[in-house]
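Supplementary notes for students who missed Thursday's class. We covered one full example, reproduced here. Read the sequence, then the structure, then the short commentary at the end.
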Amino acid sequence: MRFRHPDGSTVHLSYCTNVHPAETLDGVLAQLRDHCEPVRKRLGRDRLGIGLWLAKDAAHALITDPAALRGLRAELDRRGLEVVTLNGFPYEGFGAEEVKYRVYKPDWTDPERLAHTTDLARLLAALLPDDVTEGTISTLPLAWRTPFDDTAAEAAHTALATLAERLDALEELTGKSIRIGLEPEPGCTVETTADAIRPLTAVATPRIGICVDTCHLATSFEDPEAALAALAAAGVTIPKAQLSAALHAEAPHLPEVRTALAAFAEPRFLHQTRTRTAAGLRGTDDLDEAVAGRALPDGAPWRAHFHVPLHAPPAPPLTSTLPVLKDTLTRLVGGPDPLTRHLEVETYTWQALPPELRPRNRTQLADGIAAELTLARDLLVDLGLKELP
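Structure (token representation):
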């Protein structure tokens, strides 16, 4: 979905296909048929943007077979879909029964992460619509926090600098500019936007900036105004933003709130949980650690890294951090010039919701994704952007 910003530029809104995990090219093509096109039709649009997730095997199949890449591009066109951004965070196995810490491997100290992201950039340059010259890729924020020492940091920074050189060469060759956004996430080496400033200024290239995920921002209790102002002051760009909402518990000391939270503690993904104290942010790596005992103080609200559907916050006594999303979006695109032009709805946890809240079939999932995109569209229109055909 495309929007005209009051400054005349185009802002793209898509939804991320990691909600339909597929490891192979055949699986990706099935996603387009079974999920993406039905969502487009529900929205009544001739064109829908998707934030494509290409796992290692799917990316390899495309990079080694030009005919397959042309076929994917043709299939996107045929189904009324377009790609301006890729989710390059998960490498493989995102649909496994247990993902947890595996999603952070390989990290930016591993040459395979550089190779994979280089492949993704080459693929995106080929998949961009003819009238679009800029693509973006979100990636993991260097590494999980442990083990990560000065030697690891130097290796990661060197890899990013090499990537920037490759992206420069790619633009010279194709005329397409691909930019990368590190995506701060609780528990990682780069957990917050503030953590991103040092490594990104060390690399010092406009090719590599930050991907602001509003669920992660909220989980770490970052103030959107302060966070975005600090990035601007440091000269850190925002190639991409992911529109997502975290789980919020206002009174975690109450037994009924603990019970409600426990229903979201599931075995597939990590749901890092945070609270603010006088001494600073406190947290656990997963939600079950928080609800099971006294791992976290409970005198102030808790937030958990669980991407809840934008249009359907959980029932009381829980809620979502949708207000943080709205505040951040206003600051990203509501001013005279947009701070980013690529927005992606990323609720990948539909099938990890408590059983009674999960979609029971493809139809219900498509309805839910379409409802999220409708909410995001309405927010953009309310900010003065005009939806384009």
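Commentary. The chain has a mean pLDDT of 97. The first strand starts at residue 2 and ends at 4. If anything here is unclear, bring it to office hours.
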